[in-house]
Amino acid sequence: MSTKIKPIITTPDPRLRQKSTKVGFPDDSTKKIINEMIAASLDWEKSHPHELSAAMAAPQLGINKRIIIVRDDTDNKKNSSFTALLDPEVIKTDGKITKDYEGCLSVPFLYGLVPRPEKARIKAKLLDGREVRIKVDGMLARTLLHEIDHLNGILFIDHIKDDKDAFFELDEDGELQPVDYDTRIKDNKELFPDEA
Asked: Is the pLDDT of residue 196 over 50?
């Protein structure tokens, strides 16, 4: 029995800009959402040979619930297992603010050099309802902060929308190239629909 894979929604879909509601105690519908998220992530990856789906938030499938999934091994595209975190919250961030590249399944073709703290402490629930507290740093901290932003209606482009040198795209060889800010980003209603 093949199930239809839910499409990943992209800007300017207004559901990406809504705050998500708490899951509470996980049930069968929570498991179903997580399975749909994993299927959509892996399906997206098939058509993006130079990219890896490292994580996803439920709003990216148009489901405004506080659920994120994170790839267990981001160095190995063949490892397709994910961990789900429910109702994740940032307790604290720490360390230097550093810039690194971020992309997003819901912001096609664009990458950005986004400033974020190097370390974070996160509180969340696992699928069995247990609460966990995790300390993360480096790329995992960045990934979790990016996904938790989604649950609050924030996209990575919001952090850099006034930085003319922060936007990039992949060329056909999988290399990042700068994007012309004035023609592609500034006043772009697809990316920033609420800007007057």
From this structure: no
DSSP 8-class letter at 126:
-
* Catalytic residue chosen out of the listed positions 36, 89, 131, 147: 147
Contact 193, 14 (CB under 8 A): yes
CATH code: domain 14-184 is 3.90.45.10
Per the CB < 8 A criterion, the answer to whether 73 and 96 are in contact is no
Q: What is the pTM for the complete model shown? A: 0.93
Distance of CA 136 to the CA centre of its chain: 16
Instruction: Report pLDDT digits (tens) over 150-170.
Output: 999 999 999 999 999 999 998
Q: What are phi and psi of 34, to 5 degrees?
A: -60, -45
Q: Outline where DSSP puts E strands in 51-195.
A: 55-57, 67-71, 82-103, 110-125, 131-137, 167-170, 176-178
Alpha carbon distance 111, 140 (integer Å): 17
Could you give the C-alpha distances from 119 to 33, 129, 145, 148, in angstroms and in order?
Answer: 28, 25, 10, 14
Pair 138, 196: CB distance under 8 Å: no
Q: Is 51 in the active site? A: no
Tell me the H-state helices in 4-137: 28-46
Domains of the chain by residue range:
14-184
